[in-house]
TrEMBL record:
Residues 1-171 form the N-acetyltransferase domain. It comes from Catellatospora methionotrophica. CDD domains: NAT_SF. It comes from the Bacteria. It holds the Pfam family Acetyltransf_1. One of its GO terms (molecular function) is acyltransferase activity, transferring groups other than amino-acyl groups. This is N-acetyltransferase. InterPro entries: Acyl_CoA_acyltransferase (IPR016181), GNAT_dom (IPR000182).
């Protein structure tokens, strides 16, 4: 997989990201949606996401396959608060379902860490949906659980999940 930081947000790139986002969501990925979604469901959220990137507030990392198609991404999101300027939250971390299980998610996270260090950041934060076992993915990459919001995520009536907060110290 080839990585690119802050690629130009062309219409084609945005379309590929939205399509991958739908594929990841529909395969059960925890990237902001629950159950089956359409591109129309994702587009309003994606537009807000792209706005922060286009404004230069947030940074986009994209992974491409050997044919140049988008197969992975993450966003280093600013807190938009000067007292938190020394760290970022990783958001919309995803690898296309057909590429999972090959170590590409770990490669994506390591590249995100490299960018964070290059930016001079002191830490990276990520939130994960409890009950999915995602902590087991992030822990070997150096992330540690620093808190939980019990029942903060309502994935369905009667199915509330913890929001697990994890931290990677870059200092």
């Amino acid at each position: 997989m080839r990585f690119e930081v802050d690629p130009e947000l062309t219409g084609e790139l945005c379309e590929q990201i939205v399509a991958m986002w739908a594929d990841v969501s529909n395969a059960g990925g925890s990237v902001g949606f629950v159950g089956q979604v359409t591109r129309a469901d994702i587009e309003p959220v994606a537009e807000d996401t792209f706005a922060g990137i286009a404004a230069g507030i947030d940074r986009l990392l994209v992974g491409y396959d050997e044919d140049g198609a988008v197969v992975a991404m993450l966003i280093l999101r600013s807190q938009r608060f000067h007292l938190s300027a020394h760290w970022r939250t990783l958001g919309r971390v995803m690898v296309h379902p057909r590429r999972q299980g090959r170590g590409e998610g770990a490669a994506l996270m390591r590249e995100g860490e490299r960018i964070g260090r290059e930016m001079g950041l002191e830490g990276l934060h990520i939130t994960v949906r409890g009950g999915e076992g995602l902590e087991r993915f992030y822990t070997p990459l150096g992330y540690r659980e620093v808190g939980r919001l019990p029942g903060a995520l309502r994935v369905a009536p009667g199915d509330d999940r913890d929001e697990v907060r994890m931290w990677l110290d870059l200092g």
